[in-house]
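SEVERITY: medium
COMPONENT: batch folding queue
REPORTER: lab tech (J.R.)

DESCRIPTION
The queue accepted two submissions in a row. Attaching both inputs and their returned structure tokens so the on-call engineer can compare them side by side.

ATTACHMENT 1
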Amino acid sequence: MASIPRKSSPGSNGGSQPAIPDERKRKRMQSNRESARRSRMKKQKQVEDLTGELSRLQMANNQLLQSIGAKEQAFVQVDNMNNVLRAQAIELADRLRSLNSVLQIVEEVSGLAMDIPEIPDPLLKPWEFSRPALPVADMFLC
């Protein structure tokens, strides 16, 4: 009968064979340690990169929030200015109506033909009023 070769135990006489599996095991453990170290370093670099990106994004977010706040403040100012101008336009239209009625009375009493302009309604047709001398964008530069 054929005998099956057996691995020799560390205490047996075949001294060179046990060293090969131990050497492989040692190399594999060393390789695993190195791989784990590289993996930890890669993960640490990813965390550092993400932390840096987070800082940049937070700074950009703060700048955007400040810009939005400034734009909101400018909008409120322009809106307030528009409300004042609307009120002034209504007041001036009322004055013009009063003056036109005086002109009509003078025309009726004197018999002279007067050129009485028509008064547009400032709230119904705001586009009929003359435009400001400066474009809207230039108003913010002043």
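ATTACHMENT 2
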Amino acid sequence: MNEQDFAELAAGAALHALSPADQRLFHDALAAHPEWADLVDDDIETVAALEAVTAPEFPPLDLRATLLAQIASTPQHRDVDSDPHSAESSGFSDAPSAAATGQSAESQPRAAAPRRWTRTIFALAACLALVVGIGFGAAALGGYLNRPAAVVALEQIQSAADAQQATVTLEDGGTATAHWSASAGAAVLVTDGVPAAAKGESYELWFVRGETPISAGVFDVEGNTATAALSGDMHAGDIIAVTVEQEGGSPTGKPTSDPFIVIPTA
């Protein structure tokens, strides 16, 4: 094992991401090369810095999309052990064949597979920590990346230069606030104090365009609050409305009851 292979193992060990077999290789290599201990210490210190708790900073709204794009564009390195024919298919190999060395395939020591993926993930984690600020812990990061789609849509609308909103107070004292952006072509409804729909019923969202209601999906209420993104593109001047329909939405594609939430956007 060379120093680069050991560095991959050291990164995996610091991240607690090694398999039992790699864990044994890591300890055996460290025992054989104590001069590589500095690599281990550096990685442990980096992980400790990532876990340190300081004043948190809220990450940029496009972090999730940027991270997913980075993951999608990162080349995936094939594990040598998982493709025993890779050397043959390429037409050349630096290693002598079993026939040339007089050894059987079973008796030949197996070459260590490169673990560049480990170092890549380690570097990505470190860069991500710099972006979001030390102290934005792993649990908080996981929660941020896994936010509901409606919450993500609301943040995108609120960050738009032409973001608008309007609030109405309902007869039962609850409130409903519509957020929309013409540039984003999107709208989100946030309700507070609105009870959940009765069993067998759903709340259905509508864009009312002129005299035509266009279904924009159904939503549920949990704990008297809800954040629901309207499906489809919003047009300037649309009215956002909500009706009570049978569970799953109107079977006809048209409202079957009068709206109890009506919010003009013009």
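NOTES FROM REPORTER
The two ends are 69 Å apart (CA to CA).
No errors were logged for either attachment.
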